[in-house]
Design goal:
Blueprint (H helix, E strand, L loop, with lengths): L10 E9 L5 H13 L4 E6 L3 H14 L4 E4 L3 H10 L3 E11 L4 H7 L4 E6 L6 H6 L2 E4 L7 H13 L26
Parallel strand pairs: 1-2, 1-5, 2-3, 4-5, 4-6
Helix pairs in contact: 1-2, 1-6
Bound molecules: S-adenosylmethionine.
Length: about 180
């Protein structure tokens, strides 16, 4: 395998900027669920602290297993700067970035990294994020959704292998799906 996505020394963080309690709870929850299933280790969010969002995620992890975490960041510039110092490569998903089909050569480099942070917005993202980011990447240069952008980017990064991830400690597991729907 080209890269070490599932080794314990690989760390993939999703940073959700600008969370507004009540208004964004559904979208931020979906960002977290997508991050978890598409191979991220944790979602860090910035904006309004939201206990009900954190609790609902903990409940999902308790039921469906794995070690996915949710954390709150007090200051996004401080957080991103520290992560860069720790060796993280920062990818900012934005419609203004390099379009995904043109990003293919950089995926090859990124897959060799051991620490990656993927930044998504909610409300307008401040200009400094574009400068702090190592890569500003668009999933199509048209406005759409942070949830969709995250899913597509994470899956391309890991080439679908993340969907085979195991979730230790799960109370609920789906074994083999509806195999009778496969024509063999
Ligand atoms: N109006 C906001 C702005 O000007 O930044 C964008 C709001 S958009 C609903 C929220 C987030 O979705 C963006 O910050 C970005 O992370 C993500 N997003 C939206 N369209 C995207 C695209 N084409 N490619 C990558 N990310 C995108």
């Amino acid at each position: 395998m080209l890269y070490k996505v599932y080794l314990s020394d690989f760390m993939l963080i999703v940073f959700r900027y600008g969370h507004r309690a009540f208004r964004d709870i559904r979208v931020t929850t979906h960002c977290a669920l997508v991050s978890r299933v598409f191979g991220a280790d944790k979602l860090v969010y910035y904006g309004q602290r939201d206990d009900s969002f954190e609790k609902s995620l903990q409940k999902t992890v308790g039921q469906w297993g794995g070690k996915f975490k949710v954390e709150y960041a007090e200051d996004f510039v401080d957080y991103l700067t520290k992560k860069k110092e720790e060796g993280f490569k920062i990818v900012h998903l934005t419609m203004f970035g390099v379009n995904l089909p043109d990003f293919e050569p950089y995926f090859k480099k990124l897959r060799k990294e051991k620490k990656i942070l993927i930044f998504v917005g909610a409300e307008k993202v401040p200009g400094e994020v574009y400068k702090i980011a190592d890569y500003n990447v668009a999933v199509g240069n048209q406005p759409h959704s942070e949830i969709a952008a995250l899913a597509v980017f994470l899956d391309r990064l890991q080439e679908g292998k993340e969907l085979k991830k195991k979730y230790p400690g799960a109370k609920t597991k789906i074994k083999n799906g509806f195999r009778n729907t496969l024509k063999e």
